[in-house]
Design goal:
This protein has about 400 residues and is α+β, with helices and mostly antiparallel strands. It has four helices and 15 strands. It has two domains: about 60 residues, no CATH class; about 280 residues, no CATH class. It is globular, with a radius of gyration of 31 Å. Keywords: Membrane, Signal, Transmembrane, Transmembrane helix.
């Protein structure tokens, strides 16, 4: 028995050595593995083949609702600067020091009866271009106020893409001040195809329409303010574009699309509306099934490359006729790709960034979890083969030596 077992062990070791020797060429030695790390290429702030921008202007009213009548507090409006702490969900007063028509390079303007842009003020914040108080009973009754930021810097590349950034803040105030949030230092990136996004740092205080006693400071969060497509920068002086809203689908809180609401059904970007869940304004930035839904689509965003000679921008309550109630949807329903955290938007870098990331309405080209085939290392297959061959060899030798468990009774 002892001699037979010793012989079996010797045979197994011999077979194993042969198997490993045969598999050796498939496994590279450590000093044969070459890892190539691509050289980091920094995006130049002033590309030689483009145009350097030193004083760009950004003009935007977000949507009609941001200058419309409110069911409480009088109206919704925009304010320059980053508003301080009101202490509670309450209506702002003229002497609170919360409202500003101008703060540094940021100002608030609204159209007058002649269609000209004029400075806004606390006294005119709830008036339409004709000087009448805005009301919730009309979808076209709105102040048309816009935030205007000068001093943008960056570049417009020869291929039509651009990287522009502005310094400054503005505040979006709803229900007369009962809920508000701010945007700081917006950054616009657009690629050669005219696709891009406007990103900014959001901040503010959280409350709820169901519980106005709630009041908490919210953390700063980089969010996508607007996603744009088909930007035409060939004019040389700037452009106006209506950000994506119509047909954009997001998770949570969005009413079903129907024949009755399809003309204005959609949403602001996912990270945008998710942040509004904290401010208490979520329902005003997507189709929620409310009576004010037609006033929620995004209005035109205008960029002028030289703030001293800005291009003409739409002036009026709705900000852009293409998004008015009754318009035909310009894009189909598209669902955002799933992400680990809906607020996981990269922080704004200090250098220009290129809009290569997928937009909210564009499905991700591949999943976050790699396929099993692509995840398997090239070394795994030969190792598994070697292990299998060794196992079969062991069984075969033990069988020949009659040492397998079911053969033991036959051993003399």
């Amino acid at each position: 028995m002892t001699r037979r077992l010793a012989a079996a062990i010797a045979a197994v070791l011999a077979v194993g050595a042969l198997s490993l020797g045969a598999a050796a060429p498939a496994i590279a030695a450590p000093d044969e593995i070459t890892v190539t790390i691509p050289e980091f290429v920094e995006v130049p702030a002033n590309p030689a083949d483009g145009t350097t921008i030193t004083n760009a202007q950004l003009r935007w009213g977000l949507n009609t609702e941001a200058g419309a009548g409110a069911f409480a507090g009088g109206c919704n409006f925009l304010s320059a600067g980053r508003a301080g702490d009101a202490g509670s969900a309450r209506v702002w007063g003229a002497g609170d020091g919360l409202y500003s028509a101008r703060a540094g390079s940021v100002r608030i303007e609204k159209p007058n009866a002649a269609g000209e842009w004029v400075p806004a003020s606390f006294d005119t914040r709830c008036l339409d271009p004709q000087g009448r108080a805005v009301t919730t009973s009309s979808m076209t009754s709105a102040s048309g106020n816009n935030v205007v930021i000068d001093g943008g810097t960056g570049s417009v590349r020869a291929d039509g893409g651009m990287d522009l950034r502005w310094s400054g803040s503005f505040t979006v105030v709803f229900y007369g001040g009962m809920t508000y949030w701010s945007v700081t230092d917006p950054v616009l990136t657009i690629d050669a195809s005219g696709t891009g996004r406007l990103v900014g740092t959001a901040s503010g205080w959280g409350t709820s329409m169901d519980d106005t006693t709630k009041w908490e400071k919210l953390p700063d969060q980089s969010i996508v303010l607007a996603e744009v497509r088909r930007v035409d920068s060939s004019g040389g002086a700037g452009f106006s574009v209506v950000p994506e809203y119509l047909g954009v689908a997001v998770s949570d809180g969005q009413a079903p699309r129907t024949a009755q609401n399809q003309a204005y059904w959609g949403s602001f970007p996912q990270s945008f509306v998710d942040y509004q869940s904290r401010t208490g304004q979520r329902a005003y930035w997507l189709t929620s099934g409310g009576v004010r839904d037609p006033a929620k689509p995004a209005t035109a965003l205008t960029v002028s490359y030289d703030a001293s000679a800005p291009i003409a921008a739409p002036a009026g309550g709705s900000g852009d006729g293409a998004q008015a109630a009754g318009a035909t949807p310009s894009n189909p329903v598209r669902t955002a790709p799933a992400v680990a955290s809906p607020l996981a938007v990269p922080s704004v870098p200090t250098m220009p960034i290129v809009a290569t990331a997928a937009l909210t309405t564009v499905p991700s080209p591949r999943g976050l979890v790699p396929d099993a085939a692509t995840a398997m290392s090239p070394l795994v297959v030969p190792l598994l083969g070697t292990a299998a061959a060794l196992g079969l060899s062991i069984i075969a030798v033990l069988g020949l030596m009659q040492l397998l468990p079911w053969q033991r009774r036959a051993i003399p």
